[in-house]
Amino acid sequence: VKRPSRYLNLDANASFPVGEKVLASLKEIERIFPNASAVHQDGQRAKYLIERSRSKVRELLKLKRDDRVVFTASATEANNQVLLTPVFEHYFRKKDENFKQVLLLGATEHPSITDVAFARWNSSHFNYKQIKCSKKSGLDGNSLIELLSEEVSLVSIMTANNETGEIFPVSRFVEVIKRAAPRALIHTDCVQGVGKIEINFQELGVDYLTFSGHKLGGIVGAGVIVTKGGAPLEPLLLGGGQEARLRAGTENLLAIAALGDAVNEILLGGEERRSSMLSLKKYLTDKLSDEIEQLRVNFTDRPTLPNTLSLTIKGIEAQDFVVALDLLGVGISAGSACSSGKPHGSSILKHLGFTSEEVRSTMRLSLCGRESKTELDYVAQAFKSAFKKAFKDRA
Ligand code: PLP
To answer: DSSP string of 142-177?
Structure first.
């Protein structure tokens, strides 16, 4: 198969390609003065675009009237804001002095959750505990049950994992949590869920949901916090009346409008996108398995995202393999974008019982659904060449 003229980026979980329609409408918006607080016509037009994005999010996630949608600059910021809300409430609203609050978090959460837990839920009043993984799942239900108590005030479990693609049964966990810790508020990091699986905020039953525009076809610079009715939310940033005083600062009009357009694309063709991802993933898996006998496809025993493929090739160094593929015009990652570059490799995979050797030989491919079969034929061929080269270099 001939090398395609374009670079084949199979790393959509790191940043999803921006849609054609999203790009076209961004060009229109460039001409609008981007301060939505201005009273003149351009300001009003900017405000309209922001509210349009908000209503697209409401429609996609099936929100109720009193559920809130707050735009931030990223999912990292959105996750920080949700996890810091109880801490800020305590310190700035002077609640009961003799209390203790516990945060439970999944073992495979993104650093924008875990690092907040480690740094801010680590004092005499605030404590965190991590729900364990089992070999069968990145979230062990029994571990969750053991950790639930009256002191648990917030639980954060991701909808789907960025690295393994595993989809977690959030609504089932919500039922368990509500029974054993009725005052606990529940958050789901849905960054990898929105656009790749159907998400219904009511059915999930959570109090907070966060996601990011650039992971679904928008551009970098807009994140979202959805809160159920009266769930508390404290601002991280002060200084302006934007976002109902929950996120001060001039809104990033381009990123928020692009997020709205990307959500609209999902509203119009989400089902098609998901089924295209799934059939291409299956096609690529078969091709790769045909080409490389030593290849192991991971996590086939559990529900995974339609676009995410975790592979282990015994004996190879994934970091070198990623570089070799890059030279052949194919972009993949060894682990997630945030774990790559770390000397000890992915901690998520270690949590899931992978040996250090397996972790070093594991890669993630994530599709956007617009790849062609011919392009994927080329990917399989590139894998084969990189594989042969890896063994020849060593010999
Ligand atoms: N949560 C998950 C599961 C992610 O995969 C990512 C991005 O890698 C984030 C949060 C952070 O998103 P953002 O890039 O918008 O800060």
So the answer is: HHHHHH--TTEEEEE--SB-TTT-BBP-HHHHHHHH
- Beta-sheet pairing, 8-9 with 330-331: parallel
> What is the pTM for the complete model shown?
0.95
- Which helix (H) or strand (E) covers residue 296, if one does? strand 295-297
**To test the ligand 1 pocket, which listed residue (112, 305, 307, 339) has its Cβ within 8 A of the most ligand atoms?**
112
Question: What was the pLDDT predicted at 395?
Answer: 65
pLDDT tens string 143-198? 999 999 999 999 999 999 999 999 999 999 999 999 999 999 999 999 999 999 99
| 237 alpha carbon, distance to own chain's centre | 23
> Six-digit token pair at 123?
């004092």
Q: Tokens 């009009």, residue?
A: 253
Residue 158 Cα: closest atom of ligand 1: 3
First to last CA, the chain: 27
Per-residue pLDDT at 350: 85
User: According to DSSP H, which parts of the chain are helical?
Assistant: 20-29, 41-61, 75-93, 111-120, 141-147, 170-180, 201-204, 253-291, 318-327, 347-351, 356-360, 373-394
What integer best gives the mean pLDDT of the chain? 93
Instruction: Give the separation between CA 173 and CA 60, rounded to whole angstroms.
Output: 23
**CB-based pocket (< 6 A), ligand 1:** 74-76, 110, 112, 158, 162, 189, 191-192, 212, 223, 337-338
pLDDT in tens, 31-63: 777 788 888 888 899 999 999 999 999 999 999
Backbone phi, then psi, for 167, in 5-degree steps?
Answer: -100, 130
